[in-house]
Design brief:
It contains 19 helices and no strands. The protein is an all-alpha fold. Helix 2 runs parallel beside helix 4, helix 6 runs parallel beside helix 9 and helix 8 packs antiparallel against helix 9. The longest helix is centred in the N-terminal third of the chain and has 37 residues.
Length: 430
């Protein structure tokens, strides 16, 4: 039974909650309640490397989205076609490179944080099977961002739902060995997720063949060019993996329970930020198109509307973290000591949600404008420059609780900077 208990969490992480609709996520929670803490800890340790591969797809996809929308707004159809084509090609290349690198480093990476062989075994099994689908995953995200850049949000959502549906159907069959299928355990969870990602990509490929977009993705335009690639890379940076690795290293000397709690927090955070991410994804191409078309006042209106909606979502997240932390932690573990540590963590971190509204919207708006450096500065502050030093210093003064305090402190400081940076930009550029 222990192997079965460890299976569900592997599935939970690889579904990448910020990309998945709420209903499939909540259905998935039923499996999570059966997970052993060994498996939970293993996947929490694996998450930074796994997230790096996902961030390469999402982050670079953001660059594709922003640059395609802007070129369309400027009326430069050929450059939009080149951007989309080169973006898909480079996304596939990223997936292949990250698969090779990930397979090489993961055994050493896990042993940096734990010597428990059961935890390491869970981590290796889950990671190696998940990463077999990295190239498919990054290509799927590239197509998703291209479709979003031309306003086809319903199609991108349909692709996500197809992938989730296939995943949900195959999970119990592969994990527990229903019917003629042998029991695959945590390996089955990874394969179910990978097949779901494959279904999403096939949906895009078939649909684009039957009903082509006004942006053409073609082999003849896939040869990378400096100007186009530079624009996509400048926008599509991501730093979450660095933060997770650093915080795991800070927490590891205290107890693996704190690593588990950190992993649970990021699952809950991803679920919350799913709503905000949807708003930002819709905002980027709108801002990029209108900026390219010279509609400066409309850019400002779009920013204000997105800010209001995300502010409501983040306020709700803060209230949930403050009022029902035990319930939220209980979705992942029933161990009283873990729930107690998680309660403290969520209550200290949650105020940072509402503070992050400014940074999230400002960063997304800069990406839509093609101002990747300004977006990168905000991300650096949130995910490295401020939070990591604060977490390290406070952990040495007041223990692991200092890491939780670092979250809201970093969000507060970054929000002040992001707000000031956006104000200067609209004064000078818009």
């Amino acid at each position: 039974m222990k192997n079965k208990k460890g299976n569900g969490d592997g599935k939970m992480d690889q579904t990448y909650m910020k990309e998945k609709p709420v209903v499939p996520l909540l259905l998935s929670m039923g499996i999570v309640a059966m997970i052993s803490e060994d498996a939970m800890t293993a996947v929490s340790l694996v998450y930074p490397i796994q997230n790096l591969a996902h961030a390469a797809g999402v982050g670079f996809g953001v660059g594709i989205n922003a640059m395609v929308a802007r070129r369309l707004g400027e009326g430069k159809t050929r450059m939009a076609n080149q951007t989309a084509s080169q973006g898909v090609f480079l996304s596939a290349l990223h997936g292949m490179i990250l698969t090779i690198l990930g397979m090489a480093v993961i055994p050493y990476f896990l042993r940096m944080f734990t010597s428990d062989e059961v935890t390491i075994s869970y981590g290796l099994t889950y990671f190696c099977n998940v990463f077999l689908f990295s190239t498919i995953d990054t290509m799927g995200m590239a197509y998703e961002k291209v479709y979003q850049s031309v306003g086809k949000m319903k199609i991108s959502m349909a692709a996500v739902l197809i992938g989730c549906g296939v995943n949900i159907v195959l999970d119990p069959i592969f994990i527990f060995g229903l019917g003629p299928m042998p029991e695959l355990g945590i390996r089955g969870a990874a394969w179910a997720t990978g097949i779901g990602q494959t279904a999403s990509l096939l949906f895009y490929l078939i649909l684009n063949h039957v009903k082509p977009l006004n942006v053409e993705i073609s082999l003849r335009e896939m040869r990378p060019t400096k100007e186009i690639c530079g624009g996509m890379y400048s926008v599509g940076m991501a730093l979450t993996s660095l933060l997770l690795t650093a915080l795991n290293a800070i927490l590891a000397p205290f107890s693996q329970v704190y690593i588990l709690v950190l992993g649970v927090y990021y699952k809950l955070q991803a679920l919350l930020y799913q709503g905000a991410s949807g708003v930002v994804q819709g905002m980027r191409p709108l801002i990029g198109y209108n900026y390219g078309a010279g509609e400066q006042e409309r850019v400002k209106k779009i920013f204000r509307a997105a800010f209001m909606i995300v502010g409501i979502i983040m306020t709700a997240g803060t209230l949930l973290g403050e009022l029902v932390p035990d319930f939220l932690m209980g979705l992942f573990t029933q161990t009283p000591s873990t729930v107690e540590i998680g309660r403290t963590a969520l209550r200290l971190i949650s105020p940072g949600f509402v503070m992050s509204t400014v940074s999230v919207i400002a960063s997304g708006a800069f990406e839509g404008l093609g101002m990747g450096l300004k977006s990168l500065k905000i991300s650096l502050m949130r995910y490295a420059v401020i939070i990591i030093p604060i977490a390290f210093v406070l952990s040495r003064i007041i223990g692991p609780t200092g890491v939780w305090h670092a979250f809201w402190l970093a969000e507060l400081i970054t929000a002040v900077y992001a707000g000031a940076s956006w104000k200067r930009t609209i004064t000078v550029s818009l």
